[in-house]
Amino acid sequence: MDRSNKPAAIGVAASLPQPTVTIHDNRIEATLPSGESVQVYLYGATVTSWKLANGEEQLFVSSKAHLDGSKAIRGGIPVVFPVFGPPPKNHATSALPQHGFARSTNWEFLGKSTSESLGSDKSKTHNAVKLDFGLSSDMLSEEFRKAWPYEFGLVYSVTLSSEGLETSLQVQNKGTEAFEFHVLLHNYFRVKASDFTPSLGVNSLANAATFFNLQNKSYTDKTDNYALKTESSPAIAITQETDRVYQDVDPAVPVIVATADDDSAPLSITRQGLNTITLWNPWTEKAKGMSDFGDEEYKEMVCVEPGAVGGWQTLEAGEFWEGSQTIRPRL
Ligand code: BG6
User: Fold this and answer.
1) What pLDDT, on a 0 to 100 scale, did the predictor assign at position 204?
2) Is 328 annotated as a binding residue?
3) Does CATH number 2.70.98.10 belong to domain 20-328?
4) GO CC terms for this protein (predicted)?
């Protein structure tokens, strides 16, 4: 018998438990044999849940979030493209809404992959799953297409493994002229509300999350009229409304998000092609002003948003660009 066709080899591989992927009308869910799971809505290709093997949810989604496609989902990982923040005047993105259209358009599920290409260690490949989503110009509403009339394609890949979660965006210019864009992955991380420091008053509250590896970085402080500042703290705590865009952050150096309680391991985020980090927490007053966010929910979340938003990325006709993040639940 030809040894290359030895049935035993096939038998061993086939007996390994495989990830399960369930396709619903509006969302895709994947679970690994080891118990980790992820959920992605087609609306915005928004990852709305990422659970570890012990069932612990890593992402925050507001109890008031709209999940019916009527508004960008308040929580999870919305994809920001092609403009971050309010669009500037006199720019190709000027007629778009804040944070662009990718987060408020239905994407297409392109398929799953659990193949060996997901890892060099073949014994582990049954414990990883990649979900691919696509969005192209012809899938936009007429309104968005008019506001940003470029021919483009986006492929967003969400890879879940027992080591962590990776999300990766490829931007393709399918037209005949160059365009400019921003990309940002708007992670809402969950922080246990009980982690909040008992207070003497609102001003003594500190969110339980602390951020490392941003010291000495320049940032624009959106809460202070976009003033340019330098981070002095090695361990940043959130004690007030925070809305900062850190510039020129080396993507290979992980940003660490630690929480106050000892039983939660810190998250680390490394990036490729994304050299800005936005830190956002709306705090008390802004929280009250948002219809899709609970008044007290600012205690339960922090946004740590890897992006390429320090300036415009220019993409020539026929070219593509890629940026990604890898979030690991432990160091
Ligand atoms: C952050 C911005 O990325 O997103 C903030 O830095 C903004 O300025 C926040 O308030 C939420 O934006 P939106 O459009 O989802 O309410």
Assistant:
1) 39
2) no
3) yes
4) cytoplasm
